[in-house]
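job 3f2a | input accepted
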Amino acid sequence: MKHVPDATADRHFESDYTVDRVGVDGLLSELDEYAVEQALRLKEKAESPEDVTVTAVTVGPEKAADAVRKALQMGADAGVHVSDEAIAGSDAIATSLVLAAAVRKAAGGGVPDLVMCGMASTDGSMGVLPAMLAERLGVPQVTLASQVETQGDQVRIKRDGDTATEVIGARMPLVLSVTDQSGEARYPSFKGIMAAKKKPMQTYSLVDLDVSADQVGLSVAWSVVEGTEARPPRTAGEIVRDEDGSGATALTEFLAAKKFI
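job 3f2a | predicted structure (261 res):
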């Protein structure tokens, strides 16, 4: 579960051109809410739901714990928050390393039956982390699912493309990512919000995960932002008047000059 800056807030960069994740309001990435929803649906459909545990995992500063709390309020059973100053500025490669270690630790040292991800984050929008996570965990990946079906240890998904829909199947354990077409995410109920306060949430550092600080952070990132430029202020629009009957011609010429027609 990724904690991202609120798109409606005044977002900006730090002095090192990393995204400010402390001085701005944040929330659970909307695309990750669909992953939480699908995980909860799979639990509800299981023969013995009480034997299924949904654990929400996030990596980020102190405020990132709010993303896990949102998942707990929706119905997840437990949470894991990885927080370490050395992680700041990490790219997707380093983030996948930390997440893989956190997933293994949360699963008691092994690999859980299913790791559920959103299709991408709403800040970076890279969409590569599920594949990287599957590689690090050594399990198959079935990604960009618009529909998910399970039977025993088998998972079948539908992936919608521009010209066709693919049906892809695999056996657990695996990494699965879902799109925003997979099913509307539920809203936390009052009962769920109150129950979330009693659910367990572990906080891990890099030391707890046996991950070296020199493997993460901005200094080892394969991709960095080298500069930023503020969006220019909005200028006044051009008004086309039709006082002498020439408005249609002027409008056509304007659209043609802008290559809109």
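job 3f2a | The helical segments are 30-45, 65-74, 92-106, 129-137, 190-196, 247-257.
job 3f2a | closed
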